[in-house]
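dumping this here so i dont lose it again. seq + smiles for magnesium ion
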Amino acid sequence: MTRNALLEIRDLHATVEGQEILRGIDLTVRAGEVHAIMGPNGSGKSTLAQVLAGHPAYVVTAGSARYEGKDLLAMTPEERAREGVFLAFQYPVAIRGITNAYFLRAAVNAIRKHRGEEQLGPVEFMDALEEKLKVIGWDDSYLSRPVNEGFSGGEKKRNEILQLAVLEPKLAILDETDSGLDIDALKTVAQTVQKLRRPDNATVIVTHYYRILTHIQPDVVHVLSAGRIVKSGGKELALELEEKGYDWIREAAPVA
Amino acid sequence: MMEPYVKDFQAFASNGAAGAPPWLREIREGAIARFAALGFPTMKQEAWRFTSVAPIAEQHFTLAPPLVSRLPSPAVVESLALGLGPRIVVVDGRYAPGLSSLAGLPEGVQATSLAAATRAGPGGELARRHLARYAPWQDNAFAALNTAFLADGAFVHIAADTALAQPLEILFLATSGAGGGAADGPAVSHPRSLFVVERGARAALIESYASLADGVQWTNAVTETVVGEAARVELYRVQREGRNAYHIATTQSRQERDSYLALHALTLGGSLARHDITTVLDGPGAELILNGLYLLGGSQHADHHTVIDHAQPHCASHEFFNGVLAERSHGVFNGRIIVRPGAQRTDSKQTNNNLLLSTEARADSQPQLEIYADDVKCTHGSTVGPLDQTALYYLRSRGLSPETARSLVTYGFAAEILGRMQRPDVRERLDGLVRAGLA
Ligand SMILES: Nc1ncnc2c1ncn2[C@@H]1O[C@H](COP(=O)(O)OP(=O)(O)OP(=O)(O)O)[C@@H](O)[C@H]1O
Ligand SMILES: [Mg+2]
């Protein structure tokens, strides 16, 4: 294994509902890096993200994924989260009746407990939250609302960013968090990612747009097509995709 | 088996209740006749399609004898009361003055036994004006039976522009099966309540039903509430009777112009519960929040039939009922919304969400919209389903254990309803009961 590789994916195959979606993914993300993954609709970007987060509907049929040298795929979703993996969902989920504040604190405390840190009470937690809220331009009113319930598309994405900011993961995977955001919110995402950019953690950004990458400056850009990474390059690859589309690199669709 | 009740009625009418005023005796005579004509409902009737009252109909419940030896100790009452303010205690349908504590009620607030209110004085006039005017005893056999045996319960009158700062609790205790009595067979009590909140007054009232024992018992309650012009009322109702209790209830409200009523119904107890809640929005600008939760387990069966009657224009009603059903329990929700001709600009919303925690649990949800006006906004939605796997996964992906995720998602169904309760003190107590019920 490469030294200081935070995430190391080898020949990863995964199916959903018996259909193979990931067809041999190889990807290494080192601490301190930001990777972007682009690719056509349905190419498997979210599938990859969900496999890494531990979604029970996706079945890994071959290959491996190691996180900090450990077998990521053998861990439960909650173990992954407690170890520092965070997925910002493309489609965040609503939890009826549970306030955002309660949810966030439960998540923080679950992770703190795992690290052997003290639990935060409601008051201490709110204090710690204040500054993060400011960053995403929110007031307290979003905290007393049930998680994502009745949130607009952009608000749901902001809520994912808030969780990212609060949980401070080691490996953040952002699945189209920039889609549906207004220009200010987009900058917020970029700022939050930049803030988290430290020598000991890494971010994977799944996106369709060059714009977010101009704010974030990824180290590597990958193109995922039909379940494989078909091209990797620098930031200029994203610009090239923006201009030319995917046709020139698109892999033949799998024969189902 | 109706005949025994008719016989019991004759005994009741000639003995203990003989002192009642003629108008009340007349109502009772009419009600027992209606009961005899209607009989116990069967599942062949549309309104009872999912609920069998055979366990009640197939045996005879003697009329719970008047208190005396059965009075619970103050400590027991204390443990069952929410204890957030003054309270009326009603034991087996009879007002228990020694257990009630009504000190400190503001001027203009009358809280007393219904029996006293039906006798003489200005209260008697009020009772006569309102009692049995709203509850549908002509059509509903259980309301008829309650009305036939109408003797006592709670009476609350809040004078115009009076504000009741603390919530007033009415605790109904059923003692049947608690032992100690000679004839400790299954007994029925018919607690009756009348709440009259006059123009511009404000109050929070709590009706709480509990059992002193797990014996077979039947509570057949009727509550009538009048919310006067521009009055604001929060009516909490908690049913947490014993595991062998049958609880049948009618909650009937009438709202006048610009009034506000929030009715919160929490059903936790009983083996068989049926609650008919009807509110008539009888003046323009009235607003109703009907907010209910049933939390069932074992083989509990609870049926909520609600009717929101928009009789006047410019009224709003928002109805939310959630059910959490574990083990072999069965929840029934029927939500009827009537918009009368001329009730224009009605704004009505209804939702019923049911969470099935086991494959054997069952929920039946039926919206019933009857709209006879054209300029109205009416929406309804209902769901029945198991725990949302995606929600559980989302929570786990944030580090929560599967157990915590499950209990959070489950509690969320209850929290949604609790969250609409406006008094923090009451909400907190009920939250405690709910958490205990979910544990
Ligand atoms: N639960 C599922 N059941 C059936 N098919 C699924 C399921 N989840 C994903 N798929 C299929 O897998 C393929 C890849 O989906 P995925 O969501 O990973 O694409 P994506 O690259 O994220 O696309 P987009 O850019 O539109 O978000 C699609 O063809 C999709 O229809
Ligand atoms: Mg996707």
